[in-house]
Write a structure and sequence with these properties.
The structure is a homodimer. Chain A contains 11 helices and 17 strands. Chain A is α/β, with parallel strands linked by helices. In chain A, helix 5 packs across helix 6.
């Protein structure tokens, strides 16, 4: 059941029912503008990652500022975006299973869709699905550029898979997916620069070997909010797949030389108990704010520290300064925005203290 | 948007789209029966916690086996249960905010509902809401029995709050909420026994002091799956609020002298990449299976170990034995069932390899 929204346009923020997902619209728009401004001179294009926002509204705002399309991780996300009118969607991931592939392929009738593969059996499965539907779709080869998760080895194994794609009647070779996920949260700029230099070398070498085999590489995609400045400057990456930049996690802010974005996404919580001395308990635990990348940070309330999350309770220690009152509302900066958004049905868009809009998290819960 | 279910009745389990929430019906029913059988001779009644299952279907199955009602943590959960016909619901938590209290009070017209308080201001707010609606509702005093989160001190502070409730025209004193959450996952039986002995002493002392002031204490509620045997044997607890027993977390199974329940809840995942030697990647990361109480355990596949969860990927190390094939489906036992269920729209009920039923997670996403 889609839950009713926790607010109405025109309300003051402190009237919003909690826990609620607050999007600070001024900061959010500034982030979209900042990324567009940064990428414009580099030649690299933004293909923003919708796994962060799961929203056709936000996808359209990114594309209005120059993004060439969207990435998704799952077919259910691709469906929501395609149904909502997004014209260019890359599933930046493997999709295994005949039913899912059939659903993916069906989208080729209403949008430009592409997908990744790291296995010859998968290429055959995508070809079979495309043939059955009578369409032709681009397939990118995912290469492992340092994350040790999915992806074939750069160089000859990637070239062999690309040739297999190119030789498939209902497929086109779409390029390389070369995302280095584990580099995003490396703490020092030097670590991140070195990781992406190595990833870009792997990609560049593979592009060159593809060229020698007569295969053009239309897309080299990758990068996230932690490293995009390196990929964009590499000369080899053509598409930047950052997503979190729009919201800015607490954890990204812990990187040295943190990316230049403002915190735009918050979980609004209410103080629901002040019974323990020195402690305030809020109604946002780890069901309301993801803790996989650390606990949330309390926004603009020095002296308050979020120290523990249980299912529906967040425990705050009052270190100094004014203690919050029972019923007071606090903004929490999530440690990790993507899974936090995924817990909600609605964004509550706020500008200067007033609710301006409600946007559904339309691709939430699409597990498959 | 409510997502379409990942399966249809009659399918084989391996045909279910993934990630999906699998309820093994034989194990689940055995757990419900085991708890009913355990409590019958103790005199303590089950008021199962719906924060675990968020399902009116499961609530009804628990009540058919003798549960006197359900607990919830949030008004949105209480609404779903009351709308679905559950006749007796305790919000085992504080609810702060006039809009939420009005919603809670409205349920008193269709069900027996009760709520907790740990602050005199809250008692006044509940009284105001009940007066406005022209109803009378029971309010329990939450006492802190060792968790140091919510709740007033046992003894005189609890008695004072109970007297304030009893003196409020539209409230009744409903009893004591005495839940020791942090004891649930203490590893040794001795630790858990000592924690609950102390909690029961606090509750018993407070009940006696209430009696001296002429206040009867109809309910003393608490306990979870980790400790319920102690509360049920205490002679002071009248209602057992276990929830996880129905599903049985991987983390509860790590307790010494683990509670006598079977793993009934699984996340079904598909192997989506075998590109890395010695590694299988599944399509279930921490958006699909909660990791706040540890990583999931792979069910009945010795030699496979789940070693890392990113947003949509789970990384499995192949330690020995037969490696899983691309496309193979694996059952994961969640470290923590409650927040795992909260990520899904549907239970897929499976019996001996076949999908038997689909049940909505009807109270999911009710953040407020």
């Amino acid at each position: 059941m889609l839950q009713s929204p926790p607010a109405e346009p025109g309300m003051r923020e402190e009237e919003v029912d909690t826990p609620a997902l607050i999007l600070d619209l001024d900061a959010f728009e500034a982030n979209l503008d900042a990324m567009a401004g940064f990428l414009a001179p580099t030649g690299a294009k933004l293909r923003a990652h919708a796994k962060t926002h799961k929203s056709t509204v936000i996808a359209k705002l990114q594309m209005a500022r120059g993004a060439v399309g969207q990435c998704v991780q799952k077919v259910a996300e691709a469906e929501q975006l395609a149904w909502g009118g997004i014209p260019d969607i890359l599933v930046s991931n493997q999709v295994v299973g005949a039913r899912k592939l059939a659903r993916f392929i069906a989208l080729a009738r209403i949008a430009d869709v592409a997908i990744c593969a790291d296995d010859a059996a998968q290429v055959a499965a995508i070809e079979a699905a495309a043939e059955a539907a009578g369409v032709r779709v681009p397939v990118l080869v995912e290469i492992d550029v340092g994350m040790a998760r999915c992806g074939v080895e750069p160089g000859p194994p990637a070239v062999a898979l690309a040739e297999r794609i190119a030789a498939s009647k209902h497929l086109r070779f779409g390029g390389l997916q070369a995302y280095h996920g584990s580099a995003q949260h490396q703490r020092t700029p030097e670590q991140r620069a070195a990781s992406i230099a190595a990833a870009a070398d792997s990609a560049r070498r593979t592009v060159e070997q593809l060229r020698q085999r007569g295969l053009d590489c239309p897309i080299v995609g990758g990068a996230g909010t932690g490293t995009f400045r390196h990929e964009a400057a590499s000369g080899v990456y053509t598409e930047i797949q950052a997503g979190s930049y729009a919201f800015m996690d607490a954890d990204y802010a812990r990187n040295d030389d943190a990316p230049p974005f403002r915190h735009a996404l918050f979980v609004l919580a209410t103080v629901m108990s002040r019974a323990m001395p020195g402690v305030a308990v809020v109604d946002a635990g780890h069901k309301a704010v993801a803790v996989d990348s650390g606990l949330p940070v309390i926004w603009e309330r020095p002296g308050l520290r979020f120290v523990g999350a249980s299912d529906e309770h967040g425990k705050i220690v009052i270190e100094d300064g004014a203690a919050p009152a029972l019923g007071e509302k606090l903004r929490l900066v999530p440690g990790h925005c993507d899974p936090t958004v995924d817990r909600y049905d609605w964004y509550v868009g706020v500008r200067r203290g007033r609710v301006e809009c409600l946007w559904p998290v339309s691709a939430r819960g699409g597990m498959a």
